[in-house]
Amino acid sequence: MTEIIDWLRAKAHGFNHLPNEEVNAISDFALLWALFESRLLNTEGSARAICDVVDSWQKDGSLDAASLDPEIGYFRQRYFANGAFTYHFDHLHLRKNDQEALVRSVIDGSDNDPRDRVAAALIIIFRYRNNLFHGVKWQYKLADQFGNFTAANAVLMKVLDRHGALLEG
């Protein structure tokens, strides 16, 4: 572990209970999100920017929603069960401009359009980013986030591999 992780374990209540794999997933997410936002959102992260970039992938024929099916399945299971949205859904803290109707329709399975599935997955990940960087996730002491950040990291790597111009700049 790094000096910073050791410090957090000593000083940040609850952090010392997180397994190393969860700490690593959260740390990895911060780096992957920064790369994603830089390379694909022109440093302007928002639900609108996400929808715009997904629309461009659909237009140029490079959209690959099927590759995200495992992670979309994870999001659907976490946020919708027994015919209703779970309490976890409200904890995404979707804001007015976060395309909540789109996210809901993808999560409940009523919308399986490839463009919408990719956009919804990335908007959920955007909410993870905001909730982590603005402190909401700390209210839960970052507990039980391993699945969220593992799924988010997988999506970000797949999207960056396909669209990220990783050999540039």
Describe the fold and architecture.
The protein has 169 residues and is mostly helical. It has one domain. The chain contains 8 helices and 2 strands; from the N terminus they run ααααββαααα. Strands 1-2 form a two-stranded antiparallel ribbon. Strand 1 and strand 2 form a beta hairpin. The radius of gyration is 16 Å and the shape is globular.
Summarize this entry quickly:
This protein is mainly α and 169 residues long. 62% of the residues lie in helices and 2% in strands. It is built from eight helices and two strands, in the order ααααββαααα.
Give the SSE layout:
Layout: H1 3-11, H2 20-40, H3 47-59, H4 69-79, E1 80-81, E2 84-85, H5 87-90, H6 100-107, H7 114-133, H8 146-163
Antiparallel strand pairs: 1-2
Features:
2% strand, two-stranded antiparallel ribbon, 169 residues, mainly alpha
Strand content of the residues, in percent?
under 5%
Q: What spatial order of strands do you see in the largest sheet?
A: 1-2
Whole-number count of domains: 1
Structural class: mainly alpha
Main pleated sheet: 2 strands, antiparallel
The count of β-strands is 2
Mean pLDDT: 92
